[in-house]
Amino acid sequence: MRVTPPQMPGDAEPIWKSATRAAIKLMSTALYSKRFIGASALFIYGYASYPIAEPTSTHSLRLAQGLDSHELDRKDPFAVNVRKIAARVGVKNPERISIRVGEETAGASIGANLTVGRRGACIVLPMELYDAFYAPSHLHEKYDIPKRDEIDFVLAHESAHIAKNHSMYTGAFLPVSLIGSCVAIHKIPNKLIAGIVGVLGIVGGNWYLSWSLEHEADEVAAESGFARGGINCFQRRLSRNCEMRSVLNTWMIDERGNYLADTSHPLLTSRIERLKLLATADPVKLIVSSDTATDEAEAY
Asked: Which residue ranges does UniProt annotate as crossing the membrane (predicted)?
């Protein structure tokens, strides 16, 4: 008769392993719960969509880093220019946009074209652009101040986010990616691989969406006639970043001047290349349209 030798205390499983296994099992059970997934997705969607309903609320301005910003008077020439450009890129009811400037923000737009008529929208812009708008032309080169074409491109870019309802896309994509990742985790037997796939699905998906929306906003601004301003704006940023890299000696800025820590925006070099293609494509469109008009006239 074979007798199993008793296990010594030293052979027992460590407590931390047991606790980890129990925690993973508990989390897996919670993640598989349809109620938990549905409630989490609904909460995330409400959190992301609230700024669309209340564009000028404290929560919305905090997300845009615009708590220190102040609203411009409607008759301010800078605000008038913003609304003109917004109408040019396709924003409905541009008079419903609240124009704000602040020191902390790098530029953000809150709201959507579908709701701007009832709920309004908000564009928060850096004070640097506001000061540059009123600066005399001879100071732009001397102090490396953004020029008028660069300012107009930034305004068109932020307005394009509203015109294309980008806030609605970002608000809906996060809960959808959460549900998709939970389903993938449930289907994959290996929980380590499942966890990696789930995280990559959420982070990578939102990363891809953010870059796609930024490229689309650049494209809308370029098609509205602001491509050259965008190229000049991004090239000036590259020059600034290269100067910072030489001073700080940091790996967060590559040799070409791309700031690698900004994961929500595409690389500046890629944005410049796309804008150059769009800028060179504009004359071609004009030539084609003029030739077509001539042919139609001859036909009649």
From this structure: none
